[in-house]
Amino acid sequence: MLLATPLAAQNVADLAAGKRPDNAAAVYRARVRQSVTSALQRWTEAMQRGDSAGAASIYTDNARSYVDDLPDAENKSAVVSQLFKTSLAGAQMTLTIEDFDVGGEMAFVTSLIVAQRPGDPAPVRLRSVFIFRFDNWHSVWQVREQFFDSRAATSPAPAAP
Amino acid sequence: MFTAPSRRNSHLSHSVLMKMRIRASIAIFFGLVCVTGSLEAQGLASVAIPKTGENSEVAYHAKVREAVTTVLQTWTEAMQRRDSAGTAAAYTRNARSFVGDRPEAVSAAAVVKQLFATTLAGSHLAFTVDDFDMSGELAFVSGVLVAQSDSADSAPAFIRSVFVFRFDDWRNRWQVREQILNWNGASSEMVPAQ
Asked: For residues B137 and A25, what is the distance between their CA atoms, to the nearest angstrom?
């Protein structure tokens, strides 16, 4: 509890304080993971509702997005425009996090997205990488870069060694 | 009410004050020596010690960009030579890789095996950086990998790629922690950006 309070107040500063370096790093990592998971949860809900403003809120102004063979998107509004051209818009999505790491004010999440649109015969599977950056001013984690690849989601992952 | 101290008291208080100042100076000096030493050992000193404010951060940003670009350059050369050890050196032990529809690889050895199962191994490779950012011990690079195989009649493949790097404190180097290559095993033209 003694560690939790300053962590909650300072976000990144706890690592610099280094009262209990191992614990502080683990707590910070868990907090960041929770934050980016919440952001992705809000994003899937916004995409399902067709809420472009809600979807846009998780991106940095200079966000970039690569989705299969679609033209690259190189800012927030272009990212949303690109996403709403895919089968993700209006689809019920499940996002399973497979890998996560954080360093300083940057984090990444690798996930498998399964999206099913009403009326579509089969769900779409996408391998995705989201790279997050912490916005100090607004104190939020936002997506700085994302990469979706439907080909990479066709075969199952082998067991980790 | 303020009363002037006697001459003896004034001398004593001045002496005590001087001793305190000397002690404080010694403590600050040793503190700075310890902090600088440990930070330099970690290779992150330019960010932790803002020598010239924002410039040091910009300089560090440029240094990291150069370091990860060098790693990618070494990686392309190793791939071209089919040098598995050289290729593996670019990856963390827990690296993950997604290359087209190939099975996911979840260790440095598995990544090399995955890459060497494609025609990228032995091809002439060139990587163009489109985007870069970093913070702390993470950095990423996105760009286009151009692969040209030895056969004269084949067209080059343009592969959209993202590499996430992690700094290895112990060995003082940047390595690929995660990569995703939008590779379909066939030549294709890139679609221009919006």
From this structure: 13
Q: Any idea which residue has 């614990």 for tokens?
A: A23
CB within 8 Å: B178 and A68: no
Domain limits, chain B:
7-42, 53-181
pTM of the model: 0.76
| CATH code, A51 | 3.10.450.50
Exposed, middle or buried by CB within 10 Å (0-12, 13-18, 19+), for A130?
buried
Cα–Cα distances (Å) from A52 to A37, A67, A90, A111, A124, in that order, read 19, 17, 11, 22, 20
With residues binned 3-state (H G I as helix, E B as strand, rest as coil), the percentages for chain B, rounded to 5, are 40, 30, 30
Nearest to B60 by CA among B148, B135, B119: B135
Chain A positions with Cβ closer than 8 Å to B: 64, 66, 68-74, 78, 81-82, 98-99, 101-108, 110, 127, 129, 131, 133-134, 144-145, 147, 149, 151-152, 154-158, 160-161
Q: What is the ipTM of this complex?
A: 0.81
Which residues from chain A sit within 8 angstroms of residue B100, using beta carbons? 149, 151-152
The reply to whether A158 falls in a domain is no
Identify the pLDDT of residue A47. 96
Q: Which residues pair with A142 in a beta bridge?
A: A133
Sequence-separated (6 or more) residues with CB below 8 Å from residue B93: B107, B108
Tell me how many helices (H) and strands (E) chain B has. 5, 5
User: How many of the other CB atoms lie within 10 Å of CB of A1?
Assistant: 4
Give tens-digit pLDDT for B59-80: 999 999 999 999 999 999 999 9
